[in-house]
TrEMBL record:
Keywords per UniProt: Glycosyltransferase, Transferase
InterPro entries on file: Glyco_trans_1
Name assigned to this protein: Glycogen synthase
Pfam families reported for this sequence: Glycos_transf_1 (PF00534)
Alphabetized SUPFAM superfamilies for the sequence: UDP-Glycosyltransferase/glycogen phosphorylase
Domain Glycosyl transferase family: 206-360
């Protein structure tokens, strides 16, 4: 089977482990990363200077991608490099043609993408009768609604033959909203984002009672409830500290919390080296989201066996085994959030048991990348038989 996997830097942290597993299984996979000038800093890469030409070329022409050659085979990993942001620029027109040519000449059995092509780019769907689209977020998050999201989703649904969701909870709503046949939807999952391990330094010392929030700042992340929860936590665990790390505009007044002295705010893009250090130092991670689909933050934390306290929204309940890999609490409830954090900070044995459970559960079995990749390959085979 010959597979083309098209994605963006935003999903590279979950794409790389999957592509690596496909390679290990002997699948003939080509991985194409769309790299427009406005997405040079995201998840695994922080490109300081874009190569000044529009074209499709090996990703390793960027040192920021070349560094991953020890993690996986980069020989069939390409970037589609676009140097102008405007949709009707010469750079964009040229990229559209090159992508068309790349997809057509590759003669791929299956094209799998998590990008929603519309407008002239919707013509790509006509190049392959076996097109699979992953919907990481079937519905927009609070504060991130865009007027044209429905049209983009419907374009991808119309052009695809298969559909992937990463949690079971939203399957029925997805199918009813977009008029999709339930039988055509694959429910798969995310594995641990193990690539962060390549950046861990052995001399990093963990900090006692260090609670970590990391990821892009956005209104649906519920950070204000976490900050309030820390006031309660400190009454029981006086040396507890909270680190909030991530880029994006703070959507509430965080200054009063920063002045408390036990809440550190790192408000910038967090690269892989810094993230590995933050995770190595923390005791547990927190996802206090007010709504969600699934979370790469959880799978990144699990890569270093860090237990999670999360709100039970979207598909998060499917990712965390209550009492085994973390604790689930209601959304927008600072008291419940605080109680769960306190429980793990004061019960070191439970914390240790959770870390060991995570280690065993995600390295093998149904939650491993090996099982996830097998599920995709079986699905591709069924798509080809249609």
């Amino acid at each position: 089977m010959k597979l083309l996997y098209i994605s963006t830097p935003s999903f590279a942290d979950c794409d790389f482990p999957l592509i690596n597993t496909f390679q290990e299984k002997g699948l003939d996979v080509t991985y194409l990363i769309l790299l427009p000038c406005f997405q040079l800093r995201s998840t695994l890469v922080d490109i300081k200077k874009q190569i000044p030409r529009t074209g499709i070329f090996p990703a390793t022409e960027y040192l920021e991608f070349k560094q991953y050659e020890e993690y996986m085979d980069m020989s069939k990993v390409y970037v589609s490099n676009r140097i102008n942001q405007k949709g009707y620029s010469w750079s964009c027109i040229k990229e559209n043609f090159l992508l068309w040519q790349f997809i057509k000449q590759g003669s791929y059995d299956v094209v799998h993408s998590d990008i929603f092509f519309r407008g002239i780019r919707a013509l790509y769907y006509r190049l392959n009768n076996h097109w699979v689209t992953t919907f990481h977020d079937p519905f927009p998050h609070t504060g991130e609604e865009r007027g044209n999201y429905r049209r983009r989703y419907e374009s991808a649904i119309k052009g695809s033959n298969g559909y992937v969701l990463l949690n079971e909870k939203q399957k029925l709503q997805f199918c009813e909203t977009y008029n999709v046949n339930l039988a055509k939807v694959l429910i798969n999952r995310l594995g641990i984002y193990d690539i962060v391990r390549t950046f861990v330094k052995s001399d990093t010392k963990p900090l006692p009672n260090n609670v970590l929030f990391f990821g892009r700042i956005s209104p649906y992340k519920g950070i204000e409830y976490l900050c309030e929860a820390m006031r309660i936590v400190r009454q029981v665990v006086p040396d507890a500290i909270l680190t909030i790390a991530g880029g994006g505009k703070m959507y509430f007044d965080i200054e009063p919390y920063k002045q408390l002295g036990y809440i550190e705010v790192i408000n910038h893009y967090v690269g892989m080296e810094e993230l590995a250090e933050l995770l190595s130092r923390c005791t547990l991670s927190v996802c206090p989201y007010t709504d969600a689909t699934q979370s790469g933050v959880i799978m990144t934390s699990f890569s270093l066996c860090k237990p999670i306290v999360a709100t039970n929204v979207g598909g998060l309940g499917e990712m965390i085994d209550e009492g085994k890999s973390g604790l689930l609490v209601p959304p927008k409830d600072s008291k419940a959030l605080a109680d769960a954090i306190i429980e793990l900070l004061i019960d070191k044995k439970k914390l240790t048991n959770m870390s060991e459970y995570i280690r065993q559960e995600y390295e093998q079995g149904d939650r491993s990348w090996n099982a996830i990749a097998d599920k995709y390959i079986d699905y591709y085979t069924k798509i080809l038989e249609l």
